[in-house]
């Protein structure tokens, strides 16, 4: 495998220099999403991700505004705190005729509001005249549709496309249609209120006279339709925003409430929760957190599971939907094109023309080595927090099928480790969470040959065996429990022998097909701290290495240590900082009682958000060393928001508090709770343990955090362990 071949195989995302350099705002609602620039526009002058998308296809790729043939001046733009709408404030530039100033700048205030509901995008424009005289305005809306599959926008070349028909304008509406090679007709219908004086397939023009201090509104709706689908309901902006916000209020009423002494941290929690709610999508099998905007607006097995684990104590219903969805799509047969095998949990499921034509394998695709053990971990943790034995029993056949995959298909050479080897000719070469083509390599920089056994996957395997054993005990299947405990113990004993690198004094990234160690210092072994696979005597050594200067950049732990042959702080998986990766490692620090390590890295991660756009944790940022007075360097094409990044801050909070639960026995545990210096107290209301509620306040004391239970069901026992 060479770099050029791997680039093609792994769906490398090509970067538009212009698109990467502009501020972007995004919204998502179910299967639709938008990405616009700070003006609220979709620009088509450069290749990039701006536009309105639905079910994996970009429908609207151009949307712009001109006033008297000039572009407006920018004042302000933001996404609302609840992620319900985008608001953009604009004004007019100086308007002259024959060098005579007719309308001075800052005379007309323009407020633009953008909103999504189901398969329709709404834009409302409000104009107000602050001049002392009546003014005349020519307002032009530009628009265009390209119907590109999201993978085309990412850079995947196609030998042929379907037929794009000329736009049609009739009865006050503009229609665009595209007949795909998959024999599906996709159409976009633009409607205006009021109707334009002039319109064609490229722009609509409105002429208005606006008296002093008077307002005028223009409404646009863009409805995306696929196949035979019809959308007869005519919504207006006030109706839609009311419905969207009612849904948000209902969602928030069901959640645990968290308030802390640090207002910046409160804002981060609030933004993260809004992002998770926005990314959550209702599927035929229940709600599922889609991975991230813009490139990963789809269900991913690994991402959904880790997101669910991170926020599980505070939002257990997300885990339930995720488990149910993945169980319904669990592998049924051996299908090399999809890298599918019986019992395997899927990696990715896409909609769109390229998926329908099998130009990409994500229909769904199963090329993920870790989704299956992670599924079992989530099932166990869900039971621990909810005590929902009936639901877990309903998924018991799926759990056994996952175990069978681990034993029969996941362990390719029957050496007790899970390995991966791509079978699909267009599947992913690397199938761990670092799935870039260049993410698994030896100390000399050469790529490892598959089958590959990743270090963190063995940690997941260990936790899956232990967790499934615990479930078996709950269900009275004692023989299976003992069998699984024995397997887990055997794995723990041989893992240290086979993965430990004497030269690096660290665990290897992976074993290649010849069982040769990839002796590279990476963040991956930190996941084994989380799962408990690492020997207690080596845990501090691993943790110390992870916070050494070549790994900890001041904002977080890098994916690869500085100085390793493929280290690059601007790379996707070989030197950047991923919040979810750090959150998992921090949970590992807590497991081994390394609170100072936890405080150090968590503080860097939190402080990074004080500099990052929208105050949210993105998919990743660059791994450059922290510079006094400056924030972290953004990664140019990172998804933001990203589900497992948004949920990571809740995992960090859980690690500080040492939160765990035994809902079947109605116990809530705090293990060696601590708080960082920037949190004086944490107030948590409506934490659910099974069907019971606990309210409590955590305050930092002299020797650790103190827990004050302010309200709880008498059935729940609260235990603090130090």
Number of strands: 31
Describe the sheet with the most strands. 9 strands, antiparallel
Tertiary shape: globular
Strand content: 25-35%
Instruction: Report the total helices.
Output: 18
What's the overall average pLDDT, rounded? 94
Q: Roughly how many Å apart are the termini?
A: 51 Å
Query: Which range best describes the helical content: under 10%, 10-25%, 25-40%, 40-55%, 55-70% or over 70%?
Result: 25-40%
Structural class: alpha+beta
Low-confidence stretches: 1-9
**Gyration radius, to the nearest Å?**
27 Å
Question: If you had to describe this structure to a student in words, what would you say it looks like?
Answer:
Strands 5, 6, 9, 10, 12, 13, 14, 15 and 18 form a nine-stranded antiparallel beta sheet that branches. The chain has a seven-stranded antiparallel beta sheet with strand order 1-2-3-4-11-17-16. Strands 19-28-29-30 form a four-stranded antiparallel beta sheet. 30% of the residues lie in helices and 26% in strands. It has 722 residues and is α+β, with helices and mostly antiparallel strands. α9 runs antiparallel to α11 (396-410) and α17 (595-608) packs antiparallel against α18 (643-657). It contains 18 helices and 31 strands. The longest helix is centred in the C-terminal third of the chain and has 22 residues, at 478-499. Mean pLDDT is 94; it is low at 1-9. The radius of gyration is 27 Å and the shape is globular.
């Amino acid at each position: 495998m060479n770099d050029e071949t791997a680039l093609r195989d792994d769906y490398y995302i090509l970067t538009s220099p212009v698109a990467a350099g502009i501020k972007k705002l995004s919204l998502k609602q179910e299967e639709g999403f938008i990405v616009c620039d700070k003006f609220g526009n979709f620009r088509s002058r450069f290749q990039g991700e701006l536009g309105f998308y639905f079910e994996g296809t970009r429908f609207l790729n151009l949307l712009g505004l001109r006033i008297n043939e000039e572009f407006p001046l920018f004042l302000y733009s933001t996404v609302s705190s609840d992620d319900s709408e985008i608001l953009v404030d604009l004004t007019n530039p100086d308007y002259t005729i024959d060098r005579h100033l007719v309308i001075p700048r800052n005379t007309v205030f323009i407020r633009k509001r953008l909103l999504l509901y189901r398969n329709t995008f709404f834009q409302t424009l409000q104009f107000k005249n602050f001049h002392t005289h009546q003014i005349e305005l020519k307002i032009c809306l530009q628009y265009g549709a390209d119907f590109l599959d999201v993978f085309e926008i990412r850079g995947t070349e196609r030998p042929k496309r379907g037929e794009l028909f000329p736009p049609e304008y009739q009865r006050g509406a503009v229609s665009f249609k595209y007949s795909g090679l998959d024999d599906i007709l996709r159409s976009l219908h633009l409607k205006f209120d009021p109707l334009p004086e002039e319109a064609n397939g490229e722009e609509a023009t409105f002429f208005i006279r606006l008296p002093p201090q008077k307002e005028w509104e223009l409404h646009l709706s863009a409805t995306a339709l696929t196949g035979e689908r019809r959308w007869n309901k005519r919504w207006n902006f006030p109706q839609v925003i009311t419905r969207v916000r009612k849904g948000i209020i209902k969602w928030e009423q069901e959640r645990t409430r968290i308030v802390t002494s640090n207002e910046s941290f409160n804002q981060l929690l609030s933004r993260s929760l809004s992002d998770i709610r926005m990314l959550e999508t209702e599927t035929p099998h229940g709600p599922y957190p889609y991975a991230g905007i813009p490139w990963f607006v789809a269900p991913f097995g690994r991402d959904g599971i880790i997101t669910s684990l991170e926020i599980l104590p505070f939002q257990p219903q997300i885990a339930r939907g995720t488990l149910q969805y993945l169980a319904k799509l669990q592998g049924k047969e051996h299908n090399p094109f999809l890298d599918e095998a019986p019992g395997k949990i899927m990696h990715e499921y896409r909609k769109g023309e390229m998926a329908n034509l099998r130009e990409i394998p994500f229909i769904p695709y199963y090329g993920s080595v870790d989704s299956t053990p992670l599924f079992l971990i989530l099932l166990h943790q869900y039971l621990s927090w909810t005590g929902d034995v009936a639901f877990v029993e309903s998924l018991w056949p799926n759990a056994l099928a996952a175990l069978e995959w681990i034993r029969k298909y996941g362990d390719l050479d029957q050496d007790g480790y899970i390995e991966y080897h791509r079978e699909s000719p267009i599947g992913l070469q690397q199938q761990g969470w670092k799935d870039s083509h260049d993410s698994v390599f030896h100390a000399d920089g050469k790529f490892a040959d598959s089958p590959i056994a990743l270090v963190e996957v063995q940690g997941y395997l260990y936790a899956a065996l232990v967790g499934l054993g615990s479930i078996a005990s709950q269900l009275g299947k004692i023989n299976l429990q003992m069998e699984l405990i024995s397997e887990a113990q055997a794995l723990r004993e041989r893992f240290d022998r086979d993965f430990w690198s004497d030269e690096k004094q660290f665990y290897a990234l992976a074993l290649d097909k010849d069982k040769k160690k990839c002796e590279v210092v990476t963040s991956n072994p930190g996941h084994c701290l989380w799962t408990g696979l690492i020997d207690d005597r080596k845990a501090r050594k691993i943790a110390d290495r992870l916070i050494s200067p070549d790994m900890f950049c001041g904002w977080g732990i890098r994916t690869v240590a500085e100085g390793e042959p493929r280290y690059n702080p601007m790379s996707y998986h070989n030197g950047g900082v991923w919040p979810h990766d750090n959150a998992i490692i921090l949970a590992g620090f807590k497991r081994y009682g390394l609170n100072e390590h936890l405080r150090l890295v968590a503080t860097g991660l939190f402080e990074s958000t004080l500099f990052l756009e929208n105050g949210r944790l993105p998919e990743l940022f660059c791994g450059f060393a922290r510079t006094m007075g400056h924030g972290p360097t953004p990664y140019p094409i990172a998804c933001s928001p990203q589900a497992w990044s948004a949920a990571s801050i809740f995992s960090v909070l859980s690690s500080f508090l040492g939160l765990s639960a035994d809902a079947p026995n109605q116990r809530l545990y705090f293990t060696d709770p601590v708080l960082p210096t920037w949190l004086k107290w944490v107030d948590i209301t409506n934490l659910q343990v099974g069907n019971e509620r606990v309210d409590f306040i955590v305050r930092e004391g002299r020797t650790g955090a103190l827990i004050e239970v302010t309200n709880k069901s008498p059935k729940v026992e609260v235990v603090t362990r130090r």
